[in-house]
């Protein structure tokens, strides 16, 4: 049986290190890097700089989780705002000035 954890080498701040993550976390990390116009190494370096404890793999998992949680919260807020706007009578919106 193949392990769900994938070990990859990555260069952080000029030195090579190995990071073990499940493939969905690698994919999420790649998506985040693309969305920020950054390299994967740059995103991992910033995670490494900002972590206060724990190992790098755990810090990356928490970073990816937090990113998608925040994205979900923002999506729900946008949807709620849109629904509120769509349910507000037009005369209420126009007379608000």
Automatic annotation (TrEMBL):
Which InterPro entries does the UniProt entry name for this protein? RHH_dom, RHH_sf
Query: Does the record carry Transferase as a key word?
Result: yes
Q: Which residues form the signal peptide?
A: none
Domain Ribbon-helix-helix, by residue range, is 6-68
- Asked whether the keyword Transmembrane helix is assigned, the reply is no
Q: Which domain of life is it from?
A: Bacteria
> One MF term in GO for this entry?
transferase activity
Which keywords belong to this entry?
Transferase
Q: Which Pfam families does this chain map to?
A: RHH_4
What name appears for this protein in its UniProt entry?
Aryl-sulfate sulfotransferase
Give the originating organism: Pseudolabrys taiwanensis
